[in-house]
Amino acid sequence: MLRTTDVAEGKGAGKARPPQGAKTQLRVGRLVKAHGLKGALKLELFTDDPEGRFTPGATFTLQVPESSPWHGKPLTVREFRWMNSHPVAFFEDVDDREAAESLVKAILWIDADAAAEPAEADAWYDHQLVGLDVVRDGAVVGAIVRVDHLPAQDLLIVNTGEREVMVPFVGAIVPEVDVRAGRVTVTPPAGLFEDLADETPDES
Question: Is residue 201 part of a domain?
Fold first, then answer.
């Protein structure tokens, strides 16, 4: 199954962008709720490897409003654990509930090597896919402008110059992804990239 990993534009947070001036980054989580009285925060995860991303000492760039006291500051993990199936993290300098509340809704970004490959086959980072040409029957029909992540599957959003087409990111429709060549090959069903002709005969 084709999929993306450590999505840079993932489910649940709209079209988030890393803070201006940042390097190529991956969005790995969002702080959704203070938990308890000792500064813990519940997480919404945008990564397939939470234990790997949230190891003690891991440091994130924060996406917060400019009015936030955390604006421009990094956030470093002190501890990560699961509580009743929910991911929860403790961070340095976040020692009580009030401090945790000040971080609610913050989005966590981490630097990524734009050339790095995901560890699993048939998996790509969003930033590797965005901008690739989309080729059908040997001809370029558009370019990927973003990846939408739905519970059932990922969708490649392709700009054809006239409209945006949602292409299910599955092997039957996207048989080849060649990041180095700058293209993906698609074999879409009839009607995905063009309107089907009305074959109903006119009544006379």
Answer: no
